[in-house]
């Protein structure tokens, strides 16, 4: 009822350009109608499973048949292609590795938009270029559907435990509808603004993370060279103005913390290639908005150079090892 | 008594090279004998006043007579030069602006070491090159005195409220003696290792701080350009892996936080020149230890370039303004 | 005749996918048929005038009517829009400020491709993203036309004196045809490879130029601070391994050379904004090809930061002034 | 006679502080009295041999006896230590690997200054910190001797062929005397100014060289990734504003040029460690003079990081290999 009311309010406030919002808001939010899920990789599978756990029927697909099995066993219905999913569900979540995949899944020959129904809510949790998110939103709007970007912070572990953070961009009127589903999969769901804002927030966070990690690695290395004990130095930084997430929660120096990639030869975690990819988006966004990002650019280049020196698949905190003379 | 025992233990453990430690440890720690204080600037004056508050007689000096007045009114005795202070006190704290001042105050013609008594405890809270701290320690040891470096984290406010953090380097046996005095002036007193370690820890902290601040400024600026609300972006970063002290406690974007320099046109706080100076120490230390510090170097260069563009005396968080197109 | 023969050879060698090349090569290269010219700015006008001087009738257009006058007086025929030019000429040169202008002029509603004739040779001398050049080539090929990119090195002076360097990308068989026209406007015409290669070469050159200029400015400034005479230092660099075009031909220090922007308060020359734009293309290309360009990135950021500090419209060699403490 | 006259002129002009210059200038410049040479390494041995070729008796020493043999066979007299050389020769050249060696050879227990004669001309061709050169000059002046710094540009090949460039700092009145000897060993002898200026010029040149080489490597790599032929790209750069010594005379891409380290798996040439060392001097000088050198700093860090990744002993142009994904 609240949703209906909201729909009417929008009707009056925003004139007939958005008249279809009334319809959109008629999507049932109370009963658990099927939810589409496209992209059943390391992240997508546990995310979709958390929807099932909350009682939502899931209709899914993926280009790789071997990705189906696990979710099928958990009770999901598997279809052939995104278009068929769109034919059966009016709420669809996508979780894909890169911009071209997103473009294909939405606008390709058997893509979502081929059969999408008016009023369908499309939530893309992939991390992609914000410009692509905006293009998808325009394409969806032409079909009467609503596209929101909702990239995540947190890895496979957080996905399994439903502890992801979702950064959501799109029309504010639809945020509640998105939140209903996203809270099944994450601990935090933050509304960031218009379409693309979720990606923007994700990019910003990861740029500062990427800078902070290299800064922490340099600082720890310098301190060790100057004779300081690494654990003591980490303690001092963390009680002072040098503190950051990388020094505090994910220290890159082996022996300082347990349960982080540096304690496990930099395996697992967030690969250097992925960090380089995200900083590439930051770089693109900065170039196109004429924004100077000197440290962000240099961090991007350092992760890029690491990829040339054998660190591509190690956790990005291996920059500590990359910078140590004795390291390699 | 414990102190005496500690002295004997050292005697046996470390052989006669450190036999004078027995004497050193005979310095009374119970009764409040006078404490020397040299360097009565913005930081030194409130620090010395806190010693007075704790009941220690203070014997002080400074090269600028106008610096005396305030502390004299608070009850300190003012002498002509460091040598005279050393003649009257067997515990001396120095708080000076730069390496040459420290060299002059310790080894100059009317410096401390001209009249220092055997067993005197010398604590230098200046932020200087760790190499100079080590030289001073050697010179002090020749006269039978003990030198410790104890630079501070925290500004004038923290000095007044006795909330400084001291990072202490020097012989471990003397740490308790130093701690007795330093706890009157600070909230945290951390033992970092041999002489110079305090400076090393300070340099490391400030390098990571300097990097984190520019990283935060770039990130906030990029986010704003991409359409994000600054307060919202700060909130997202601070709940995610981008979090750092600069984003969380000292945000450089006007309007995001109260009570920080960015809320006051970047006045007060920690001047860009001072940050550039500290990063110069980091650079020197990295060069001499062959340690790569790519982001630290670039941060140094950015603060240095800011000094050429009119930001020398603004708080270092004004890097946000420096990087904004509309800023200047 | 050679051209015809070349056409046949291609016909056999490359199969019917390129059968239209036979037609293309039938464009008369001996008689001086009209040449289209679109974009009559500071560069385009003198370029088009040089075509007139060589006896080519010129049919031109520009969005700004005030740009017409000068060329019209020199004997060019002015038409309303690019489509009309394409209707009248089978060789067209475009010289436009940015990628969106190029896209509009070629593919817009009254763009060249609306009325382009089969076999028309399209030469774009704008400096744009190589990816856009490739898109234009694909679009032109669909209409049976041939697109080549031919960005220039050299400024307004070189354009007037027909001393430009053209870096040409496109099918090799058409290079002679392009060269016939380009030699009227430039001293060097270099074939670089497939479409987009001209832009790639231009971007590479300007990236190294941008790095060399900042490097020269830093080096000269450091030497001056160390007590060296600037003219003497320039002389030493130029006879040693530090030599580069910026130290040798375009020294950024006032008083070292005559006839360069540093001798004229950094007026004229190549604006900082334009250098920042070109380095943005370098950055984009590097990001998309996963190429590390640490100095190129930092140079980009420095020119970008200069734009925030009042140097946007000065010659890019003003980076010397930006880096000097006394400079501002 | 001219020398004598010059001596008198100085006597009157510069007052009795420099009265000893009269004596200095009495050193015979016509007859070939013995020249001391200390430091018989890869550079020193061919340099000293060139003095012998020009008819100067050479009195030499080195800490490593195995270094003696070659020069002894060429006719040089070998003595035990620098002090003994100073006892026998009133013109001495030193060519040593680093600042501590220079300090030892001049001021150590059996150093030059122990037995130096009044008026002796001391020429140090080592590449060291300019601050150390100045200290040595002060120490020499106390003994009545004259110290000049004269570091070289050019490697072992240039040393053998007497094609070195000498950059000379020191009192101008003594430049002719230094030049007499240096022209036997080099093709260019450039007077740079007061003591330390030779080092300053060397540092400046090598900083710009170090920047230019990385810039060239990045640019060539980017161009290759964008599809350009490396030889063609080098040709384009070298005829355009991107030209620099590294692109033109010492191209870092295998296959572009013959006779350079890139044609020989980066063996020989100028080691990455040595470039990192020289950029360390640049960094120190910049830090102490508060000069921003953003690209110089980053170049320093990149060569430093290369040392951590197995490139320490390769020619510094191997930065091209370091930056290529397929490279390692």
TrEMBL record, chains A, B, C, D:
Against SUPFAM superfamilies, the record matches this protein to: 6-phosphogluconate dehydrogenase C-terminal domain-like, NAD(P)-binding Rossmann-fold domains
GO terms assigned for molecular function: 3-hydroxyisobutyrate dehydrogenase activity; NAD binding; NADP binding
Q: Where is the 3-hydroxyisobutyrate dehydrogenase-like NAD-binding domain?
A: 196-322
Q: In which pathway does it act?
A: Amino-acid degradation; L-valine degradation
Q: Give the active-site positions.
A: 202
In Gene Ontology terms, what is a biological process of this protein? L-valine catabolic process
Q: Name one Pfam family in it.
A: NAD_binding_11
- Listed GO CC annotations: mitochondrion
Main localization, broad class: mitochondrion
Task: Supply the alphabetized keyword list.
Answer: Branched-chain amino acid catabolism, Mitochondrion, NAD, Oxidoreductase, Transit peptide
Q: In which family does this protein belong, per the annotation?
A: Belongs to the HIBADH-related family. 3-hydroxyisobutyrate dehydrogenase subfamily.
Q: Give the protein's recorded name.
A: 3-hydroxyisobutyrate dehydrogenase
The organism encoding this protein is Onychostoma macrolepis
């Amino acid at each position: 009822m609240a949703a209906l009311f909201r729909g009417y309010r929008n009707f009056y406030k925003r004139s007939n350009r958005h008249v279809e919002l009334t319809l959109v808001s008629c999507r049932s939010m109370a009963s658990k109608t099927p939810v589409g899920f496209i992209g059943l990789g390391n992240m997508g599978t546990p995310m979709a499973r958390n929807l099932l756990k909350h009682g939502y029927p899931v209709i899914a697909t993926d280009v790789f048949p071997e990705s189906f099995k696990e979710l099928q066993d958990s009770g999901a219905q598997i279809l052939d292609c995104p278009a068929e999913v769109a034919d059966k569900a009016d709420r669809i979540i996508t979780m894909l590795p890169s911009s071209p995949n997103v473009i294909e899944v939405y606008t390709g020959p058997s893509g979502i938009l081929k059969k999408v129904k008016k009023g369908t809510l499309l939530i893309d949790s992939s991390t992609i270029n914000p410009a692509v998110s905006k293009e998808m939103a325009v394409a969806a709007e032409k079909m009467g559907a609503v596209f929101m970007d909702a990239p995540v912070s947190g890895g496979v572990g957080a996905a399994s435990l439903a502890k992801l953070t979702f950064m959501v961009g799109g029309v504010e009127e639809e945020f509640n509808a998105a939140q209903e589903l996203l809270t099944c999969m994450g601990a935090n769901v933050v509304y960031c603004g218009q379409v693309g804002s979720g990606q923007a927030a994700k990019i910003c966070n990861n740029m500062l993370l990427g800078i902070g990690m290299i800064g922490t690695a340099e600082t720890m290395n310098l301190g060790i060279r100057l004779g300081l004990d690494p654990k003591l130095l980490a303690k001092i930084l963390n009680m002072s103005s040098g503190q950051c997430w990388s020094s505090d929660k994910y220290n890159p120096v082996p022996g300082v913390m347990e349960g982080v990639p540096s304690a496990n030869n930099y395996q697992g975690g967030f690969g250097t290639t992925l960090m380089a990819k995200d900083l590439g988006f930051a770089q693109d966004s900065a170039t196109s908005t004429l924004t100077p990002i000197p440290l962000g650019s240099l961090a991007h280049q350092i992760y890029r150079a690491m990829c040339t020196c054998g660190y591509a698949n190690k956790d990005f905190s291996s920059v500590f090892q990359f910078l140590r003379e004795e390291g390699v």
